[in-house]
Specification:
By secondary structure, this protein is an alpha+beta fold. The protein folds into 3 domains: about 5-15 and about 240-420, PDZ domain (Pdz3 Domain); about 20-110, Arc Repressor Mutant, subunit A, CATH 1.10.10.10; about 125-220, Arc Repressor Mutant, subunit A (Orthogonal Bundle). The protein has helices at about 20-40, 60-70, 75-90, 125-140, 165-175, 180-190, 225-230, 320, 360-365, 385-395, 415-420; strands at about 5-10, 45-50, 55-60, 95, 110, 150-155, 155-165, 195-200, 210-215, 305-310, 310-315, 330-335, 345, 355, 375, 380, 400-410. It has a 4-stranded antiparallel β-sheet with strand order 2-3-5-4. A 4-stranded antiparallel β-sheet has the order 6-7-9-8. Strands 12-17-15-16 form a 4-stranded antiparallel β-sheet. Helix 1 packs across helix 4 and helix 2 packs across helix 3. The longest helix has 22 residues, at about 20-40.
């Protein structure tokens, strides 16, 4: 009898950890809100006097909620309060007394921690905040001589793109870095955090005439995403696997597949690069429920089907997966990740297989399908790898991966089994 299969989910796309990416997106939304409060006419953030004491660069809870309702189409004031409390829990804003005063829709005074220099800045958090500031300044209609332009490379037109050398020069000129070396370091961090990326994801950041764009999710990141981000687990492990997307990102006819061990996560609408896929679909793979019997199933004797949550897989031997038998249909699939990851779940104790595929994710767009066995990742053989090992191999490739997969019919009996 084969061992019970367990699950690991692949859902990341950069060298930044899952936890830092979730926190980073919350910080970017907070920084976007801080800039909006400062730029409002009249400014919401300003010096105020309360109880005979002067407070600098602060705002009232009621004004913040008013602004959210007026400018972000949040009709429920209670909902706006919950969103601002998420920012408070993530050290974006705090009560002026710095006590554990929960954000309320009243006249109490609050500050953004970046405004009073109390934000606990770290190497992991800084690229997200600077990335949002850079994005806001470069995309502002008031910015003159912006480096975001239309460029053509290898016959493809890229809108709002820029050269790495231009970004380095702009960052130094506008004081976001003290030297070109610091600017190059910032550029590399922005790539690693998936804030900017090479137009074909073929290069890391370089101070050269190499073309980059802001990740398309930057334009779609919004305050309401705080709920989704705040509910996500901050680590990838057996107890809190991460998968798929929230239901609002997927059409009702293609809602994400949920299992008892998975939750929905996502950022926003995605721009995917076209990928190629060829080969037959999974025509020969049967579905069955746990405990059911199928007398017509050609499974080898004494081997039963094993339940995999929402789907069922017929066990297969590594011997058959690695062979060139006629019943094995082999394909190569190239997947370009988005800001959330590749969009599929793997299970198995070797060989491992695709358990579920996010219908709105990059893997589905590339042609990956559930119940396909993964035999190689970037030409590295993984037939005998358990799902945990396979996950780590995939996570080492933050931008794009090439998978060798196998569609299969269950193996026929061997001569040894016939003799038994």
């Amino acid at each position: 009898m084969l061992p019970r299969r367990s699950v690991t989910t692949i859902r990341t796309s950069s060298t930044a950890s899952i936890g830092s990416k979730i926190t980073g997106n919350i910080l970017m939304i907070g920084e976007r809100l801080r800039q909006a409060f400062h730029n409002n006419k009249p400014a919401i953030v300003r010096d105020r006097r309360q109880l005979l004491r002067q407070y600098t660069q602060c705002f009232t809870g009621r004004e913040a909620v008013d602004w959210m309702v007026t400018n972000r189409d949040i009709i429920d004031r209670g909902l706006a309060v919950k969103l601002l409390r998420i920012l408070q829990r993530n050290n974006v804003l705090h009560h002026v007394s710095d006590q554990s005063y929960l954000f309320k829709d009243d006249n109490a005074l609050y500050r953004f921690r970046l405004d009073d220099c109390t934000f606990p800045m770290s190497r992991e958090k800084e690229p997200y905040i600077k990335g949002e500031q850079l994005y806001a300044r470069l995309t502002s209609q008031l910015t003159k001589n912006t480096i975001l332009k239309v460029h053509t490379e290898s016959g493809t037109v890229y809108e709002k793109s820029f050269y790495g050398s231009e970004l380095v020069q702009w960052v130094v000129k506008h004081g976001l870095a003290a030297s070109r070396a610091q600017a190059i370091g910032l550029g590399k961090e922005l790539v690693e955090c998936d804030i900017i990326r090479h137009v074909t994801t073929g290069h890391h950041f370089k101070d050269e005439r190499v073309l980059y764009q802001f990740h398309p999710n930057m334009a779609h990141l919004k305050v309401m995403d705080l709920f989704d981000l705040d509910e996500r687990p901050r680590s990838l492990n057996q107890d809190s696997p991460m998968s798929l997307r929230r239901h609002s990102e997927v059409s009702p006819r293609h809602s994400p597949i949920r299992t008892p061990n998975s939750i929905d996560i996502a950022l926003g609408p995605l721009t995917l690069e076209p990928t190629s896929y060829s080969g037959d679909e999974n025509k020969n793979i049967r579905k069955s429920s746990p405990g059911s019997s199928d007398s017509s199933s050609p499974l080898p004797p004494r081997v039963r089907k094993i339940s995999t949550g929402s789907r069922s897989m017929s066990p297969v031997r590594t011997r058959g997966i690695s062979s060139d038998e006629e019943y094995m249909v082999k394909n190569t699939i190239k997947i370009t990740g988005d800001s959330v990851g590749f969009g599929f779940v793997v299970r198995g104790e070797g060989p491992s297989y695709v358990h579920t595929v996010d219908p709105a994710g990059p893997a589905a767009a590339a042609g990956l399908k559930a119940k396909q066995y993964i035999t190689a990742v970037n030409s590295v053989d993984v037939v005998h790898k358990k799902h945990q090992e396979l996950a780590h191999i995939i996570l080492k490739n933050p931008y794009y991966i090439t998978l060798d997969v196998v569609d299969h019919n269950p193996l026929p009996k061997t001569e040894e089994e016939d003799e038994d």
